[in-house]
Write a structure and sequence with these properties.
alpha+beta; nine-stranded mixed beta sheet; six-stranded mixed beta sheet; 25 helices; 32 strands; 1010 residues
């Protein structure tokens, strides 16, 4: 009996091969998506986690440990023991601890240099490779490298010595400054540990391990920092970093080791991104599965017409409903099994192509099981849907089953279902608007809105076809009338139309979302970098950076020097503004492109002084102070930025010509004069000596040349003093430049006169709120020089490149001139124009810059594209493309099923005299009209769903919203989606209609073949 059943089933399938093939295709499309979803989700989950790790702040990727301890005269051995303990108690595969020591000390001022301050001594593995040093790396006991800020605040220079004490009562320890350091990557993992920061004190000075042999440095804090490998942060192979750290804390505590763990936010982001991918993949898959089941149900309804007479005859022969249902389901199992066989491998390949990789090894097994389970669930649901369709047919009486044409009467159940869809769509929109698009039904609000509109349009289409078709036939407009009547009377047309509308709308929204996401990532990358390509470079000073970039690109069209300082409030971006328009990617949000450039170029400055290239300087000077004292001329090398101090011994009284040697200005472009610094010695009574010093001329020798004459010295616009505190009194006369120190009780007298070779007040472009300490026009900042610098806001911006919604844009050349030898730090960059040739990097290297990082908007956008929302958007596009194919196949099914009845009708009309051309148009226009109206309805549904459901581009994982997101459905994306949808639907319709037209053309007007 069972063998007989199989024979009947396969015979039925063989006799209705086209119908079975259609069901197979319709079931295979969602099966492909179900098979692809686990492979894709697990693969891109790892990739998204990698992207999260790559863009996370360094502090979230580093574990910092510390322990107080004693060195017992052996710092090297004690530090090695600490490292061994740390590796044992906190085993992280691939993580090597960076070890160090920090001993709190107190700076003891000498010769009036600074005030007593906390000034920690520190040692750290690899220190010199993570700083930019002016001078040498500490190599022996007593050598020290101090920060640029300390060198300015105390002040100290290379070669100076200083004393520190463990307490006020301990003996001092002497150190010699061998280098001044600037952090190479302040935001990188190496400098993320707070142990080696200022922490409200002076920046620590770094020395050698041998320096810690001194008893005063014998009880430091041990530090060990581990940069966690990306694989552990991603959780590859099921690794759970949080659990490992929880287990390690008691062991570390028992050894008095403190653990600073700030990986929590990053691990939460990784988990959140994985959950986002899971939810996005499931939602996209679920929507396609629902469409697939709907399409399979319609296909089952269409193909059931061929089985109705068989069912009627089986009923007449006394077969039970169960046996007939079993026979019907047996016919469905064959195409469904074929869908599973095709869906599994195609889904695997599709996921591989979409993700560009496979899941990690430990996830391959689960992916395979989930893929098989997903396909089985999809096909089981399809079988249930087909069973429900067949069960509905089995309830019909025999007389109805044996009718050639089924009734078109629509039952009340369909009306109730439509009303339910409208109610659910309204609730989904409410949730999306009130709680966000990621809450509850808000996730599928766009699809539900499109479905609700599709159902309304389907009713309108049938109503219009009913009335317009009948009226057109009565008026003799047979082409339109017969087409409308076909659409009106063909059962299931409204459901096919609704499916087309939903498929087109979801496809359009997905294409728009992907396009808008790509645009949003490009915008963010452009804003965060500032230029198409940005090199982070090593340079000693800002002057060296600017000189090297200008030497590598003398035309000023390919490269621009820039310095980013994010450690200030507000943050500062200094750019070579003369090259800004040619190199930077300027956006409207940045304000007027010419604001900074125009203000800088319009500044009226005295004519530039000749460069100093000689080996000595001769100064004509007069004094009436009665005591001889030195006068310093501070120069700066225009190629390296290195300061050069020239010491003139000024006589106590009278006018004399004095000479002093100059070292370091006889090569390259030479040096510029930065300032004069007047030393005021104490008199016999301890008070500062009063009196004036007058500069009359300055010349150089070898080669000879005039630097300053009487006219330049008497030009008041060429000189300025400090803007705060007690400034040096300066006057200009025909005799020259006169300097008089002023003394006020309790205040340090000023001693500097600066050369005016930069615009003052300094022009800036401001984004964000004005700093609270600016009052009216009295705006100034400490971030551009050793003292307060007056600034003038020449433009405002909503956003600034690199800095975002708050910061200051300023000219680099002006700031480096104002700062002179007081180097202000920051991250040194070279911005490259889009058309900059690859050789520019080699030219920068030849000019003396070492590239330490190379970033571009394309690379940054690609990193952002790996985040959860972006990768799920790609899978969503894949599923809606399959949904569009579902609609196309269903159009073909509907056309193929109606082919024979409609062909018979048209042949009968041809016998009655209907022209062949009219019959051909009527035979094809119904399907064409269904496609065109469905396409228009889908576009309209997408346009309605986007604002109603609040559709936005995929948001960034970190919530970045510096500028408003682009529209989620642009005109270009909508047009592209409509063209693709039209092509897919038209091809399917053509393949289905062409057989009817070929057979119709073979029929003569009287029924004979021609």
């Amino acid at each position: 009996m069972r063998g007989q059943m199989f024979t009947v089933v396969f015979g039925a399938v063989r006799s209705r091969t086209p119908q079975a093939l259609m069901v197979l295709i319709l079931a295979a499309l969602p099966a492909v998506a179900a098979a692809a979803a686990p492979w894709y989700g697990l693969a891109v989950g790892s990739r998204a986690a990698a992207a999260d790790v790559a863009v996370a702040p360094a502090v979230q990727r580093v574990l910092s440990t510390s322990r107080p301890g004693a060195l017992n005269g052996d710092p090297r051995g004690a530090l090695a023991d600490f490292g061994d303990t740390l590796r044992t108690l906190l085993p992280l595969a691939g993580a090597t601890p960076v070890l160090g020591l920090r001993q709190p000390m107190i700076y003891s001022p000498q010769s009036g240099r600074g005030a007593a301050s906390r000034f920690a001594a520190a040692y750290r593995d690899g220190f010199c490779s993570h700083v930019r040093l002016t001078g040498a790396c500490p190599a022996a006991a007593g050598d020290a490298a101090i920060s640029r800020d300390v060198a300015r605040r105390i002040p100290l220079a290379v070669g100076d010595e200083f004393l520190v004490r463990a307490t006020a009562f301990n003996a001092p320890v002497r150190f010699r400054v061998v280098g001044v350091y600037d952090l190479l990557d302040p935001s990188g993992p190496y400098w993320s540990a707070k142990l080696y920061g200022a922490n409200g004190e002076l920046d620590p000075f770094f020395t050698t391990l041998d320096s810690f042999r001194a008893p005063e440095l014998g009880k430091p804090t041990f530090g060990g920092d581990l940069e966690v490998p990306a694989s552990l942060l991603r959780g590859d192979d099921g690794y759970n970093l949080s659990a490992v750290l929880r287990a390690a804390v008691p062991r570390l505590t028992a050894e008095r080791i403190s653990l600073s763990d700030q990986t929590g936010p990053l691990l939460d982001t990784v988990r959140r991104d994985r959950a986002t991918i899971l939810r996005g993949v499931l939602v996209a898959l679920g929507q396609l599965i629902v469409l697939g089941w709907f399409a399979v149900a319609l296909a089952g309804r269409y193909t059931s017409r061929d089985r109705r007479s068989d069912t009627g005859l089986l009923k007449l022969r006394g077969n039970t409903r169960f046996s007939m249902l079993r026979l019907a389901l047996g016919q469905h199992l064959v195409p469904l099994f074929g869908a599973a066989v095709a869906g599994l491998p195609i889904g695997f390949l599709a996921a591989w192509l979409l993700a560009g990789r496979l899941p990690v090894a430990s996830e391959v097994g689960p992916a395979l099981l989930l893929s098989a389970a997903g396909v089985a669930a999809v096909l089981l649901g399809g079988l249930v849907v087909l069973a429900a369709v067949d069960a509905a047919v089995l309830r019909l009486p025999v007389a109805t089953l044996l009718l050639r044409f089924a009734s078109r009467r629509r039952g009340w159940r369909g009306d109730v279902a439509d009303l339910a869809v409208l109610a659910v769509a309204a609730f989904a929109v409410y949730q999306a608007r009130s709680s966000g698009p990621d809450s509850g039904l808000g996730i599928v609000a766009p699809a539900l809105v499109a479905l609700a509109l599709a159902l309304l349009l389907a009713r309108a289409l049938r109503w219009f076809a009913d009335r317009a078709g009948a009226g057109a036939v009565r008026r003799g407009r047979l082409r339109f009338g017969l087409t409308a009547v076909q659409v009106s009377r063909q059962p299931g047309t409204d459901r096919v139309f609704a499916l087309i509308v939903v498929a087109v709308a979801m496809f359009a929204l997905a294409v728009g979302g992907v396009a808008a996401g790509r645009e949003a990532r490009a915008d963010r990358s452009e804003i965060e970098l500032g230029a198409t390509r940005v090199l982070t470079v090593q340079a000693t000073t800002r002057t060296q950076l600017e000189y090297a970039v200008r030497a590598a690109d003398p035309g000023g069209r390919q490269a621009m020097a820039a310095v980013v300082d994010l450690g200030t409030n507000p943050p500062v971006l200094a750019v070579d503004s003369a090259r800004l328009a040619a190199v930077a990617s300027w956006r409207p949000e940045y304000g007027a492109e010419t604001a900074l450039t125009g203000a800088t170029a319009a500044a009226r400055l005295p004519a530039a002084l000749p460069p100093i290239t000689g080996t000595s300087l001769t100064l004509r000077v007069g004094s009436d102070r009665g005591v001889a004292a030195p006068l310093y001329a501070i120069l700066q090398n225009e190629a390296t930025g290195a300061p050069v101090r020239v010491t003139f011994e000024v006589p106590g009284r009278g006018e004399q010509t004095v000479s002093a040697p100059v070292a370091g200005c006889d090569t390259g472009p030479g040096c510029r004069l930065v300032r004069w610094q007047l030393v005021t010695p104490p008199g016999p009574d301890g008070e500062s000596v009063a009196g004036t010093v007058t500069l009359k001329s300055l010349a150089q020798q070898d080669p000879p040349g005039q630097i300053l004459g009487a006219a330049e010295l008497a030009d008041a616009t060429r000189w300025y003093t400090d803007f705060r505190g007690v400034a040096l009194a300066v006057s200009t006369t025909r005799s020259g430049l006169t300097m008089v120190p002023e003394s006020r009780e309790g205040l340090v007298p000023g001693d500097k006169v600066y050369v005016t070779d930069a615009p003052l007040p300094l022009p800036i472009v401001l984004a964000g709120a004005q700093p609270a300490d600016w009052h009216f026009d009295d705006a100034s900042s400490y971030r551009f020089g050793p003292n307060q610098t007056p600034v003038q806001v020449v433009g405002t911006a909503d956003v600034l490149p690199v800095l975002g919604v708050e910061g200051v844009l300023v000219d680099l050349d002006a700031t480096r001139r104002i700062a002179a030898d007081a180097e202000m730090g920051g991250t040194f960059q070279v911005w490259l124009a889009p058309d900059a040739p690859p050789s520019i990097v080699d030219r920068l290297g030849t000019a003396g810059l070492k590239v330490v990082a190379d970033d571009s908007t394309a690379v940054r956008a690609a990193q952002l594209a790996q985040q959860g929302r972006s990768v799920t958007a790609r899978f969503g596009l894949f599923t809606v493309a399959l949904g569009l194919l579902l609609a196309a196949v269903l159009v073909a099914v509907a056309a193929a099923v109606e082919r024979e009845p409609y062909l018979a009708q048209l042949r009968a009309l041809r016998v009655q005299g209907l022209p062949r051309r009219t019959a051909e148009v009527a035979g094809s226009a119904g399907t064409a009209g269904l496609i065109v109206t469905g396409l228009i309805g889908g576009v309209a549904a997408a346009l309605v769903a986007r604002p109603i459901a609040g559709v936005l581009p995929p948001p960034f994982a970190d919530g970045w919203r510096v500028i408003p997101p682009p529209p989620a459905l642009g005109a270009g994306a909508l047009a592209l989606a409509a063209l693709i949808a039209l092509a897919a639907l038209a091809v399917a319709a053509a393949l289905a209609v062409l057989p009817l037209l070929r057979r119709l053309r073979g029929t003569g007007p009287r029924g004979g073949a021609r």
